Every structure is written in C-alpha cells, then in structure tokens.
Amino acid sequence: MTSTVDCVLDAGATLGEGIVWDASAQRLWWVDIAAPALHRFDPATGKNETWAMPSAIGCVAPRADGGAVVGLEDGWCAFDPATGAVEILNAEAPGASGMRFNDGCVDPAGRFWAGTMPKAGPANAAAGEPGNGLLFRLDADGTSPRILDGLYTQNGLAFSPDGSVMYLSDSHPAVRTIWAFDFHLESGTPTNRRVFFDTRQVAGRPDGAAMDAEGCYWMAGIEGWQVVRITPAGQVDRIIEVPVEKPTCLAFGGPRLDTLYLTCMGPGLITPGSEARQPRAGGLFALNPGVPGYAPPPCAA
C-alpha cells in the first residue's frame, strides 16, 4: 500500500520509543531511551514538551488519575507534568541491577504491562545463552507480579480491543517472533502461548506494535524501513514503506484515531552511510493507515 508518511516533529531523538495516545489530553506521550527523557507532543499545535528522567526510561502510559506512569530503571513511577515530579509506585520491577524496562502497553482493564532487558544489551540467543528479560504487570493496587521470563529483547506488547488476545514479541535477530496468548481479562492471565507471526517473512524485525479497530496487529519493522499490518489469522495484509530504517513504536491517535504515529531510532543508531537517505531519523512521523485504530485505556495504578 502507498501512503504518505510525514515527519510531524524533527525531534532528533537517538532512541525514540514508547509512543502512546492520551485521549483525555489529545496528545502523544513518547520517550527517548538514550537521553533518558520523556516527551509529550501536541499534534494540533506542534508543541513538544520534554522532561529529563532520573534513570533509564523504557515506556509510558497516561494515568487515570492524571499525568502518566513511566517505567524507569528505578521502578514503576508516577509522573506529574505540572511539576516534573517523579514518585515511585513500585520498585520491585525491573528487577536485578543492570536491567531496564523496554516496551509496555496497558490492557483493556487498565493494567500496565512491560518487559525488561539488560542495559548492556541482550544475551546471545544464537549461541544458546538464556534470555534474562522478564515480563511484569502493574496492577491497580500497585503490586507488580512477574508473569513471564526467558526474554531477550522484549517488544510488541498489544491487546486485542475485546481483551481476548495478548500479543508479545522478541526483537532479537535469532528470535524475531511475535506470539499470541489467550487472555483472561478479569484476572489478567495469558495462557496458550503460540507463534502468531514469524517475521522472517518480511524485511524488518518486530519492534513496537499497535492494534486497529478491526483487531489487526500493526508491527514496526525495525531495520526494514516499513510497518506491517497482520490479520488476526497471522497473515500479512498490508506493508507501508516508511522513510526511516529503524521504526520502533506505533500508536493510533487523533480525535478519530485515524492517524498512525511512529517513533524511530536516530543518529548514532542507524546504519552508517544511510544518513542522507533518512535525514529526519529520530523524528516523529504520521501516516494515514486507511483504517481506524484502537487506543489502550489509561493506567489504573
């Protein structure tokens, strides 16, 4: 499919990630993991606010009580944009020293899920080294149970709009797989893990994801210069080429949720020699996906 992909903010981020739509404020939260910094972008005005974070940040979600919840190296934290204050909600995750949060997503019941990975980079899956990344869930009462282990570069968290399916991926070059789970919405329990899509069928590895209103999964294809729409049956439905080599995360936004926004890697992390081909790498981009999207609810914690 051909779609115009526009740079709406030439941010120059090194590792743009974690983009999510805040429906109440009609703005986009996103992070630069490498800074580390938290951003909030207003598509209506083009204004982008930035706050330095006290430790490595992986993900963000709007909070039901206002502000946001961020996944920091220090733990799950509440963030107040009016004051810039960061307050720890739960320090049990991301767990061991040297780990940080990576990709996260709020489920339809308001629980914030996020995976972890080593700050120094993942273990070598090709050599048989075990993955030490974990998946945590932040519940409304502030507790954070550990749900899954054995991950390398956790990514692609998403939930079907009806809450019946959870998706999770691993971006490691030796894994590059997206899994689906049956999801029990009331208890927040994923079961019946199975391969949903092997990304060796497409150019890019799986990074962040978003769901549309029809229950299709949109994948940011890192190193593939593309985003990919995958049907609930695990079939490629649409591929949209994007003007950046390493798109990292996706979110549907806008008053009608009919715009797909994406973050990406920028200078320092793109392939040397590709700079002229992607002069706005590290920016925020927007495109018309041709289908309305689904936006997760705010975090209930």
Q: Can you tell me about this structure?
A:
The chain has no helices and 24 strands. It is an all-beta fold. It has a 4-stranded antiparallel sheet, with no helix packed on it. The relative contact order is 0.18.
Global structural class: mainly beta
Radius of gyration: 17 Å
What does the oligomeric state look like here? Answer: single chain
Strand order of the largest sheet: 1-24-23-22
Share of residues in strands: over 45%
Q: Would you list the SSEs in sequence order as H and E?
A: EEEEEEEEEEEEEEEEEEEEEEEE
Based on CA inertia axes, which overall geometry fits? globular
Number of helices: 0
Distance between the termini: 39 Å
User: How is the main sheet built?
Assistant: 4 strands, antiparallel
Mean of residue pLDDT values: 96
Which stretches are low in confidence, meaning pLDDT under 50 for 5 or more residues running? none
Instruction: Name the helicity range.
Output: under 10%
Q: What is the number of beta strands?
A: 24
Task: Indicate the topology.
Elements: E1 5-9, E2 16-22, E3 27-32, E4 37-41, E5 48-52, E6 57-62, E7 68-72, E8 75-80, E9 85-90, E10 99-106, E11 112-118, E12 133-138, E13 146-151, E14 154-159, E15 165-170, E16 177-184, E17 189-198, E18 205-211, E19 217-222, E20 226-230, E21 236-241, E22 247-253, E23 259-264, E24 284-287
Antiparallel strand pairs: 1-24, 2-3, 3-4, 4-5, 6-7, 7-8, 8-9, 10-11, 11-12, 12-13, 14-15, 15-16, 16-17, 18-19, 19-20, 20-21, 22-23, 23-24
